[in-house]
Amino acid sequence: MAHTSAAQSEPSGSAPVIEVRMVTVAFGGLLALRGVDLDIMPGERLAVIGPNGAGKSTLFNVIAGDIAPTAGKVAVKGQDCTYRPSRHRPRLGVARTYQKARTFDGLTVRDNIYLALAGHARRHRALWRSSVDARMRSTAANVAETVWLAGQLDHPAGQLAHGQKRQLELGMAIATGPDVMLLDEPASGLSRGERERLIEVLESLAPEVTLLLIEHDMDVAFRIAQRVVVMADGETVTAGSPAQVQKDTNVHRIYLGTEATA
Ligand SMILES: Nc1ncnc2c1ncn2[C@@H]1O[C@H](COP(=O)(O)OP(=O)(O)OP(=O)(O)O)[C@@H](O)[C@H]1O
């Protein structure tokens, strides 16, 4: 069984887009993360799984900049971001989604996506011209189509079903053209059909987009990820391809249950 080093990628010649080094997070006397190491390579599709309380959300939030670690280091594209709050991540091409979608309920689907685009354009000093506005409106419509919301373009976000709201949030993240997407349980609360759509959308992302997801839904995690990191008790227990992780008897013991089959 490998320990923290199991979450290191195979050497591939390029630098990791995200580096997590010996990250520890203590909540009072409780160690939620115990010296976690993780490298995520550009274009990699990585899922972090593990039983309740394993430390997945804490690790995710440290990477996203929502929790500052008690010890250790986080770098994005080689820049030390350990104590940089989450609002700095988009400047580095990092977008994230939340378990509970954060959309503007009074605004339409189009305007939610437009706002995400506008925020990104401002960062890149785009000019506020009518041609830019028209282009962003058209891009918003294209993004809505990508996330299966073309028919709801002019519906207020507040009227969308849970799954559609999550699709919208995913669209808002995709709209910014991120290099790295951090997805917090993207399949949570989705119907079977919506999960299939989610998988289709994620599979349609450009291959250079790096994807990190924490996910309880094994089907989604194993179908999207090239590499799966298994956490338990604040540590990375093992990592490998979905096929390797499904066969790992230690994973069965700590997470899937001994009756699980590969
Ligand atoms: N803000 C907090 N204050 C105190 N303890 C916390 C806090 N956040 C998480 N914890 C504890 O840290 C440990 C790891 O929690 P975390 O949410 O990271 O696990 P998880 O793997 O994401 O679990 P789940 O799958 O249930 O969401 C748990 O014991 C949890 O109770």
UniProtKB/TrEMBL annotation:
Keywords: ATP-binding, Nucleotide-binding, Transport. InterPro entries: AAA+_ATPase (IPR003593), ABC_AA/LPS_Transport (IPR051120), ABC_transporter-like_ATP-bd (IPR003439), P-loop_NTPase (IPR027417). Gene3D superfamilies: P-loop containing nucleotide triphosphate hydrolases. Pfam families: ABC_tran. The keyword ATP-binding applies. GO terms for cellular component: plasma membrane. GO terms for molecular function: ATP binding; ATP hydrolysis activity; L-isoleucine transmembrane transporter activity; L-phenylalanine transmembrane transporter activity; L-valine transmembrane transporter activity. GO terms for biological process: D-alanine transmembrane transport; L-alanine transport; L-isoleucine import across plasma membrane; L-valine import across plasma membrane. PROSITE patterns: ABC_TRANSPORTER_2. The keyword Glycoprotein does not apply. SUPFAM superfamilies: P-loop containing nucleoside triphosphate hydrolases (SSF52540). Residues 18-258 form the ABC transporter domain. This is ABC transporter ATP-binding protein. It comes from Jiangella asiatica. The lineage of its organism: Bacteria, Bacillati, Actinomycetota, Actinomycetes, Jiangellales.
